[in-house]
Amino acid sequence: MAKTNNEIDSQGINLVGKGTQITGDINSDGDIRIDGELTGNLNCSGRVVIGITGKVTGEVSCKNSEISGYQKGKLQIEQHLSLKASCKVYGEISTGKLSIEPGAVFSGSCAMGEQANHDKPKELKKT
């Protein structure tokens, strides 16, 4: 079935551009890139990229993430989190895998792999 011009691709990349400020929570089935500012929680079933000009203050929950900008709050990344050299991250991280480039700033706590799964509340653990 062909898409009409009025249909939206929910699996596309969502963009919060530089200079844009959002206050409130965002839920997305697709990927999202933040180059502006978000004050609120971000729940995404795909990949979250916080660009070098991006600033997120709130909890982020997603499958994979790459951070080059600023993030303050809890990070719950299911698979892989990559902290780039230009990033500043403050808070609690729970992830499957973590990579940190030299120069990245991270202050907080981190649980990875099996430890991240053990720290989840019982209702979130897979049986």
Automatic annotation (TrEMBL):
Q: What species is given as this protein's source?
A: Sunxiuqinia elliptica
What PANTHER family does the record tag this protein with? HYPOTHETICAL CYTOSOLIC PROTEIN (PTHR35024), POLYMER-FORMING CYTOSKELETAL PROTEIN (PTHR35024:SF4)
What Pfam families does its record include?
Bactofilin (PF04519)
What does the sequence similarity comment in the record state about its family?
Belongs to the bactofilin family.
Q: Which domain of life is it from?
A: Bacteria
- Under what name is this protein listed? Cytoskeletal protein CcmA (Bactofilin family)
